[in-house]
Design goal:
Order of helices and strands: HHHHHHHHHHHHHEEEHEHEHEEEHHH
Radius of gyration: 31 Å
Structural class: alpha/beta
Distance between the termini: 93 Å
Oligomer: single chain
Length: 597
Amino acid sequence: MSETAVVQEAFRRASALVADHRADLDPAVHLMAAHAWVGGGAPRFADDLSRHRSTLQASLETALQEIHRLVVRHGLIPPGMPAVRTSVTSMTATPGSFRGVDVVAMRSLIGSLDRAADRLCDLSVRLHAELNVLGLPTAPGWDLAGCADWARRHARDLRGRLAWIERAEPDPLTPWNNGVIPSGVIGFGLFEAFAADPGKAATLLRQIAEGDPAAVTAILALQERGDDPGLAARVQTWWRNLPRGLRDRLTVAVPEAVGALNGIPVPIRDQANRLILAREKDRLRAEVSTVTRTLAVTGQPMLLMRLDSVLGGIKKIEMLERNLALGGTPGYPPAFLLSFSLDGIGRAVFSWGNPDTADTTVTYVPGLGTKLASFDEDIERAWLLWQQSQATAGGKQIASISWLGYEAPQLDSGLVLPSRSVAMEGAADRGAGALAAFADGLRATHQPMESARNVLLGHSYGSLVTGKAAVLRPGRFADDLIFVGSPGVGVEHAADLGLQPGHVWVGEAGNDVVAYLGRFTADPGDAGFGAQRFPVSRDVINEAHSSYWRPHSASLLNMASIVDGRYGQLIKPASLVRPMFLLPELAPGSIRKLNEQ
């Protein structure tokens, strides 16, 4: 056969290879697009798959062009170049037995990667031989061999991860809901090799499991910043992957980590935090005995201050114990302690009902003056909202959380400091990261339900914390935001909070001085802000700012309706008989706002 004929035949064979192999990775790309997997590193995996598909088609295109140029150099009529590039049409995602990931589709993906690996391996050998015989660069053949290796390696990897998920043994305290595993767990379980880990959380978690106390401090600081939206899902996967015996040992050995880490199931966090309560109480009681004996001997006045501080710590613990003891008694749901610390003004996160299994979870964020010593009132507010919401929930389960997960500004000497002043946003900026991370944790540990909802309620300065947290997680922070007595939420318009239109709610009691400040950007109660106003009663000036949870009040009933998603059942407060000398309006603008209700 003449050299010219050899070149012509080579071009024909290369064109046939292009037609036969150009779409070898298309089924895998189609499956990723069609089933819209979420969480973990799925997007990065999809990008990596797309790059290898592009490499496949670019290698075929390069090889074909090289042979085409050789044909032209032999003085032959240039043959037509066959199409190399393909397009993948994305279909609407179809739900599978696992929320967020269709297991049947995952098996199909693994099979398609296996087939592609075999075909690409054969293609690389044949194309390499064709180019080598013609004296042309053989790089396209080697690139195709790399694609084949990638497909085979990840088919094997995904098969192993899928097997782990399907045999995952649920924790007895937090069983999977009807065999359905949270999408965040699936995401990191399947794609952890591809998942972004900006704070090196995977390393820190491994170190915690190995008993490194410094890693506990580091990962809690990472969580506090709220920079990584995937941290809670990574924690959830790490926890589920640990042997059950190791989980039990860590709960006892490092309860400060297990109790505070978002992504660990709520009942286990509660178990760890109750252990911390008991240990701290024993420690403080022992210190009381020591300080009392020393005081009797030395009479040092400074010891009286220390004794007062220690006794105050015991009172805080006993306050939490009293509320926890109410859990499960008549009129109260089970109670869970999701976080606890006596450091500084103290922190605690208390839940009426289990957020991991509730149909709707509402998280209340308090504001100015809130501290652990007075947190009893905020726990009661969360219970009042649970009681009213549960009564009208139509059989659905409600969880109501009081979240003191940040250092709220206090009416003390620290008020003049920019970092603590209620007139500044520093405390809200720090609290927003912690609140966003907490909301991530609610999603990561929730046992999937199609009807599950997440509502955030910010009061006073807590509304600013809530607004800033919503900006950090646009579109996935909450289903509804409720602001009451708000001095501003840090944005100019409700649309800036990242929720669907009509799901940002504002209540302002008549005579609530704080609600009329508009201190932090726009006043959310103004019509131009774009929020939904719900009716609230008027009250005396010194009580208006704290009146929103008053039993049987329009504000409490309306907040419960929003929590339940019964938006069309908001009520108006009872009419007031004027003049009301004990209930003066703050300003003419306030009268207009009240009349608009």
